Amino acid sequence: MSDVTINTQAHEGEAGFGDYFALLKPRVMSLVVFTALVGLLVAPNSVHPMIAFSSILFIAVGGGASGALNMWWDADIDRKMKRTKTRPIPSGKVEESEALGLGITLSVFAVVMLGLASNLLAAALLAFTIFFYVVIYTMWLKRITPQNIVIGGAAGAFPPMIGWAVATGGIGVESVLMFMITFMWTPPHFWALALFTKSDYGDAKVPMLTVTHGRKSTRVHILVYTFILAAVCLATGVTSIGGPFYMTVAVVLNALFIKGAFKIWRRDDAAADADNYQEERKFFKLSLLFLFVHFGALMGEAALAPFGLGGW
Predict the structure, then answer these.
(1) Measuring CA to CA, which residue among 281, 277, 258, 255 is closest to residue 268?
(2) How many domains does the chain have?
(3) What b/e sequence results for 274-288 when a residue is b if at least 16 CB atoms lie within 10 Å of its CB, and e otherwise?
(4) Is 166 found in the same domain as 182?
(5) Domain that holds residue 304
(6) N or C: which end of the chain has fewer CB within 10 A?
(7) Quick one: pLDDT at residue 8?
């Protein structure tokens, strides 16, 4: 998911609070916070409100730390891409060393404090998430393989597992399926974006699937992953965290997502160029809602449980 640059500095060319906050990728952080919160709330164990609040806060800080370290490492390619050239480092507002220092400091703080606030498993999962996103994805996979976003998507999929671990101290089938929803959602989400920003990745020499295999192959991959994603979403609905409400939402939303993927799959380059990738843009916008609505439905199912209306 793309980040938002917030500009609140007092003088042009000076870094303000908004520039440092933008390093944390607030839109990505919001997804991390929301899915982690859902993982915590749908878990079978109740958590003291203060522990829950503190844990979600530290998970958010850890997610922001990952964003800062990602921007530090990717500053060179961010300068070449239209979508990212206004980020704090390429725009000259923040020094690379500042982003590195901020990212490391927040990473250590978040992991240590989460361990103290909840348990060691949750802290270990957060530490691994930061390591995976920064080292495995950003430093290694992103620039060498078109499967970068597939494998790298695991980093954004861990938050609900961390939230579940905060509540239960363990890992369950339900938390793994919540992980899989985000993991399988990430490729079609980013490949749809890549279809109408292909020149960006080509200019930066990032081996996105659109660059290495072309847009036709990318459309096929989007369709395949969309079907797999639908299977995972429906499988989640028959577990202890699912129920009629969630299943209804999942069926409708995945039907719309599959329909959008089919439309993309059936198009050729000429048709897409002719209407400026309108179908691809629509699918991308739908993908932005997809994850929030799915996890919102899980939370809604949990909220109905005390009234005897949630679950099977």
Answers:
(1) 277
(2) 2
(3) eeebebbeebbebbe
(4) no
(5) 172-312
(6) C
(7) 40
